[in-house]
What we know:
Helix content is 49%, strand content 14%. It is α/β, with parallel strands linked by helices.
Amino acid sequence: MVLHVTYQDVLKAYKRVKGRVNHTPLVESTKLSSQTDANIWFKLENFQKTGSFKVRGALNKLNVLTEKELKNGVTTASAGNHAQGLAYAAALKNVSAKIVVPETTPEVKLEGIRQLGGEIIVKGKTYDEAEKYAYQFVEESGRLFVEAFEDDDIIAGQGTAALESFLKEPDFDAVVVPAGGGGLICGTALVAKAINPNIKVIGVQTHASPPWYYSYKSGKIVDVEYQDSYAEGLHGGIGQGNFELVKKVVDEFVLVEEESVAKAVYWLANEHHYMIEGSGAVGVAAFQEGLLDHLKGKKVLNLISGGNIDMKRLAEFIKKFGEVENED
């Protein structure tokens, strides 16, 4: 797929979703800044409607679709957050939403989909398997498939989180972004580079799901091995359209360890009292691993993409790392 999304499209999306999404907080983390010798700010999309940035893209997409396109309802494949965003946007349009999710989707996200009126179909162990079935399902049902990331309108909508940030603090030197399918990092980079062509845009993935890291280094999409991850929202492959755009607007990718993700989730809960899912905590993990030491002295925007973490997992992390601190 060839993408044509531009910064102007993000501006249009900002106008469309304004008043229908939360203008989420942008806060300076003095604690992380003091640990890293950088000036780090958090864009807290955990305070977004549905608990994730994903609702921005879904609202923008459904806003540009016609009644004819929506008449049979919508379907998507999602690890959870895009599903909740689409269910919310569909409910506002009084449109049926059937969501295909992989078996690994946390219960907190499944319950969110149900509460927002979405119907759930569980299929496959990975996002890619769920997506394959979803495409088959829309062929049979006549529904419209709404992409999670490889879509101009979705990307433009996701970019509004960064736009809000730059409208408040326009002088960031770098942006750190969780990288899953690519919608958020593409939208963010379009905004960042339009405002400051010299800004550094850095994507973060985990070793358990590293397609961006290795594909970016290779200059082409490569196959990678996937493993279970605490950052399940970043799981899955990448599309050619997103990849071509990323090559133009993103500067670097780094990979964090699973243990670092768990520690970052705990640290955000303990130090800031934020409930953040693993996918949203990978930027903090990258700083704490020392992977972003080259940003010392810089003003950095770190996107916290969502807070839909399973309570049992959060309790597990708190118990584990809290006991370690108590021993110290």
